[in-house]
Amino acid sequence: MTFPDLVADLKARMPNLRGRLLPNQSLAELTWFRVGGPAQALFMPEDELDLADFLAHLPGAIPVCVVGLGANLIVRHGGVPGIVIRLGRGFGEVKVEDGCRIRAGTAAPDVKISRAAQEAAIAGLAFFRGIPGAVGGALRMNGGAYGRETKDALIEARGIDRHGRVHVFSNGEMDYSYRHCGAPDDIVFTEALFQGASGNPADIAVEMEKITESREATQPIKSRTGGSTFKNPPGHKAWQLIDAAGCRGLRIGDAQVSPMHCNFLINLGGATAADIETLGETVRRRVKEHSGVDLEWEIKRIGVA
């Protein structure tokens, strides 16, 4: 799949652009599943000012999609029309501030938050060790693990809208619920401020090690996977519903429901995006037939088939 080239015209419109803007760039290498087609144009801004300038001058008819570290993501093989934005090194700083606070760029891996907190004797942020991906994804989906969610630690989030304007959202303005953020869809989050509490570094290290051991023992984290596939329905555990419907180990092509944890789909090596998505929809259908429960995707799916 090859899209018409947008890049030449956009660069002509934006002579002061500093970030990388690439046409028909493969996205498969940017996802944990290692599948998918190209972005019509992939933009990697140098910093927040570069991102704001790009969005301010981008024609409104061109769609924009943001990806992070690709943990909870399926990119369909037809590719993603318009602009795909991926934040990089200019958005990866993590700083400890007074009052047991940590300020982080949204390209920083979630685990970097927990490590910085442990080193600074800040308790309450170790749960980020159990969330795959980056801070931006945790903000956008209220990522959580081991009893806590992003909403439990967030003070405020900063982002840029489709017109290049800066916004700062308080915790309440993020309108959080389970795996949901009510902030406007066009916001590209660039920074977050988290609140912890005074703690003991040794105790925090033990907590993080327990999370690491639990993940390694119960989740296929060394496989090509996308993390938790479906949200837990009210009153249920998604993995239990999937297991009860007889889907543990189910395969379509080289896509498989993980035998270790059946709310994880894995790419055994040769799966396509269509295989993985079809497997997920097959699981949803079987669970509905068996228990009457509609599973809702937690993994984000983008692009055209």
User: Secondary-structure element order, as H and E?
Assistant: HEEHEEEEEHEHEEEEEEHEHEEEHE
For the report, how would you describe the main beta sheet?
Answer: 5 strands, antiparallel
**Number of helical elements:** 7
> What's the arrangement of strands in the largest beta sheet?
6-7-13-11-12
Classify the beta-strand content into a percent band: 25-35%
Which tags fit this structure?
305 residues, alpha+beta, Uridine Diphospho-n-acetylenolpyruvylglucosamine Reductase, domain 2, Uridine Diphospho-n-acetylenolpyruvylglucosamine Reductase, domain 3, Uridine Diphospho-n-acetylenolpyruvylglucosamine Reductase, domain 1, 3 domains, five-stranded antiparallel sheet, four-stranded mixed sheet, 26% helix, globular
Q: Helices, strands, pairings?
A:
Elements: H1 7-13, E1 20-26, E2 38-44, H2 48-57, E3 64-67, E4 73-75, E5 80-86, E6 94-97, E7 101-105, H3 110-119, E8 122-123, H4 135-141, E9 144-145, E10 148-149, E11 154-160, E12 166-170, E13 188-195, E14 197-198, H5 201-218, E15 224-228, H6 238-244, E16 251-252, E17 255-257, E18 264-267, H7 273-291, E19 300-302
Parallel strand pairs: 2-5, 3-5, 4-19
Antiparallel strand pairs: 1-2, 6-7, 7-13, 8-14, 9-10, 11-12, 11-13, 15-18, 16-17, 17-18
Helix pairs in contact: 3-5
Give a verbal description of the structure.
- With 305 residues, the protein is of the alpha+beta class.
- The chain has three domains: 7-86, Uridine Diphospho-n-acetylenolpyruvylglucosamine Reductase, domain 2 (2-Layer Sandwich), CATH 3.30.43; 92-203, Uridine Diphospho-n-acetylenolpyruvylglucosamine Reductase, domain 3; 220-299, Uridine Diphospho-n-acetylenolpyruvylglucosamine Reductase, domain 1 (Alpha-Beta Complex), CATH 3.90.78.
- It contains seven helices and 19 strands.
- It has helices spanning 7-13, 48-57, 110-119, 135-141, 201-218, 238-244, 273-291; strands at residues 20-26, 38-44, 64-67, 73-75, 80-86, 94-97, 101-105, 122-123, 144-145, 148-149, 154-160, 166-170, 188-195, 197-198, 224-228, 251-252, 255-257, 264-267, 300-302.
- It has a five-stranded antiparallel beta sheet with strand order 6-7-13-11-12. It has a four-stranded mixed beta sheet with strand order 1-2-5-3, with no helix packed on it.
- The longest helix is centred in the C-terminal third of the chain and has 19 residues, at 273-291.
- It is globular, with a radius of gyration of 20 Å.
- It starts with 6 loop residues before the first helix and ends with a strand.
